[in-house]
């Protein structure tokens, strides 16, 4: 579908978040320069929003207006009569030396020149500031360009935002189509509401904005689905990985436990980096003491008691103590002794008839071996950490300069003392299928691949698990992050 291309100038006072708005709309934290220093943007920069690969909205970042009071007085001095067309006054000003490269109002002139070339303007306001005469003068100057203006209240998430006061003052200037769009803490529907506000003033571009709204909704759904798939793939890998070690070799048992922990840590970091890349964030966008991510890695170790406490998870003392934390040792197999030399022909026959996975495990017992795998608490913690990370990324604007808060408090985990969640069927199956894990087992030189049939079964398990995870990602961070058995 071909829709009219909409051209929009992003205007406003200096240091109100104009570049930040563009970064968040573009999902691009590298666009322009964002700083607390005033007048960071000195020239007009253009970009575009795409639908199906075609630009449908051109956006132009403009320098901040610094002397609106002086500019309005100057424009009024150029007025030949009270009935003169305001646009003609602005055009006469733009042709004067005051609007030139060395003129007094050169920065304001760049903004006005771009607004005249555009179909509409977004007037960005820092809602933490109180409305002042300079803001009223800015709007008076901008309306002289005879373009629809949509005020955008930025930084509205904090308690210091003067949202009500701004709305009241803007209504007195006959500006009623006001959008709230925090470029740091982004609400799920704030972008859609911004486009809907624009529709009220731009009837000729209704189809364009409808296409943008539909595309952004589709992109969010795809982002959530891809995030769920990355998490599911991680969980299947970790649930399935198994190390087989001699039951009576304590030193090797200890080394294998640490190796398994390292494999799981590395696999989780791979997932975290994948999620950051998918959401178009950089590893250094996150600070270690509160994400806690350090250069794309979790700063709080997965197997530490602090990590479980962070998400309100209470494990049994055996699982949480010492070198056993986060690992399960498979030591009980229905009536089969672990002692060497006690196997009878009947026991061996039972082992061979127990199926590929369980039969192999029973035969390992008969050979005096045991298996190490991640326990249920670790899988629960992995799930909670990734879900909480995605929820935080979905609510984080690409203009955010501060720290990403991810302390587990919003994940709604199990109350202390409760048993961790029951494993969903795909994870329960994965624990009996070491061939499903891409992580190398004991002595394997490279990640395991498995036969085609096994890999297809694994793919199905990942898809089923991803569908269980997917609805949890779009919930508020106060919602529980555990998974129901399915």
List unreliable stretches of 5+ residues: 34-39, 287-295, 317-325, 330-356, 409-420, 443-451
**Cα end-to-end separation:** 41 Å
N-to-C order of helices and strands = EHEEHHHEHEHEHHEHEEHHEHHEHHH
Largest sheet, order of strands side by side?
2-3-1-4-5-6
Rounded to the nearest angstrom, the radius of gyration is: 30 Å
Count of DSSP H/I helices = 16
Strand segment count: 11
Report on the structure:
- The protein is an alpha/beta fold.
- It folds into two domains: 196 residues, P-loop containing nucleotide triphosphate hydrolases (Rossmann fold, 3-Layer(aba) Sandwich), CATH 3.40.50; 210 residues, no CATH class.
- The chain is 44% helix and 11% strand.
- The chain contains 16 helices and eleven strands.
- It has a six-stranded mixed beta sheet with strand order 2-3-1-4-5-6, sandwiched between helices.
- Helix 8 packs across helix 16.
- It is elongated, with a radius of gyration of 30 Å.
- About 15% of the residues have low confidence.
Fold topology:
Blueprint: E1 6-12, H1 18-26, E2 45-51, E3 54-61, H2 68-78, H3 86-94, H4 106-116, E4 120-126, H5 133-143, E5 149-154, H6 163-172, E6 179-180, H7 190-201, H8 206-240, E7 243-246, H9 250-278, E8 293-294, E9 297-298, H10 305-310, H11 317-320, E10 327-330, H12 345-352, H13 356-366, E11 369-374, H14 376-394, H15 425-430, H16 452-473
Parallel strand pairs: 1-3, 1-4, 4-5, 5-6
Antiparallel strand pairs: 2-3, 7-11, 8-9, 10-11
Helix pairs in contact: 2-5, 7-8, 8-9, 8-14, 8-16, 9-14, 12-13
């Amino acid at each position: 579908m071909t829709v009219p291309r909409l051209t929009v100038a992003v205007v406003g006072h200096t240091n109100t978040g104009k570049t930040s708005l563009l970064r968040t709309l573009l999902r691009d934290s590298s666009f322009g320069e964002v700083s607390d220093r005033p007048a960071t943007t000195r020239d007009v920069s253009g970009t575009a929003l795409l639908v199906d690969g075609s630009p449908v909205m051109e956006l132009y970042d403009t320098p901040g207006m610094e002397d609106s009071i002086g500019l309005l007085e100057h424009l009024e001095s150029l007025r030949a009569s009270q009935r003169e067309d305001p646009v003609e006054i602005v055009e006469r000003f733009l042709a004067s030396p005051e609007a030139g490269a060395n003129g007094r109002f050169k920065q304001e002139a760049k903004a006005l020149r771009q607004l005249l070339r555009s179909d509409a303007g977004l007037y960005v306001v820092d809602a933490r500031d109180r409305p002042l005469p300079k803001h009223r003068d800015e709007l008076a100057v901008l309306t002289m360009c005879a373009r629809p203006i949509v005020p955008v209240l930025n930084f509205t998430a904090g308690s210091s935002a003067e949202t009500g006061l701004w709305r009241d003052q803007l209504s007195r200037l006959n500006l009623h189509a006001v959008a709230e769009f925090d470029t740091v803490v982004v609400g799920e529907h704030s972008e859609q509401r911004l486009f809907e506000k624009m529709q009220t003033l731009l009837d000729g571009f209704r189809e364009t904005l409808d296409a943008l709204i539909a595309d952004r909704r589709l992109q969010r759904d795809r982002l959530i689905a891809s995030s769920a798939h990355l998490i599911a793939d991680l969980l299947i890998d970790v649930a399935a990985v198994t190390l087989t070690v001699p039951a009576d070799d304590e030193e090797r048992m200890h080394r294998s436990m640490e190796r398994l922990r390292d494999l799981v840590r590395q696999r989780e970091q791979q997932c975290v980096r994948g999620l950051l890349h998918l959401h178009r964030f950089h590893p250094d966008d996150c600070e270690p003491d509160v994400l806690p991510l350090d250069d794309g890695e979790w700063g709080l170790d997965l197997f530490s008691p602090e990590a479980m406490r962070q998400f309100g998870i209470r494990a049994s003392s055996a699982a949480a103590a010492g070198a056993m934390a986060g690992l399960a040792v498979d030591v009980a197999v229905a009536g089969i002794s672990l002692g060497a030399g006690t196997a009878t022909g009947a026991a061996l026959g039972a082992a061979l008839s127990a199926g590929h996975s369980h039969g192999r495990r029973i035969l390992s017992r008969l050979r005096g071996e045991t298996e190490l795998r991640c326990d249920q608490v670790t899988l629960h913690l992995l799930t909670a950490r990734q879900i909480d990370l995605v929820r935080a990324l979905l609510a984080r604007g690409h203009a955010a300069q501060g720290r990403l808060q991810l302390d587990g408090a919003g994940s709604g985990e199990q109350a202390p003392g409760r048993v961790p969640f029951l494993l969903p069927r795909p994870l329960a199956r994965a624990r009996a299928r070491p061939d499903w894990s891409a992580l190398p087992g004991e002595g394997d030189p490279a990640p395991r691949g498995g036969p085609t049939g096994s890999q297809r079964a694994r793919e199905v398990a990942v898809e089923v698990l991803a569908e269980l995870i997917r609805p949890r990602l779009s919930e508020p961070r106060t919602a529980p992050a555990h998974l129901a058995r399915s």
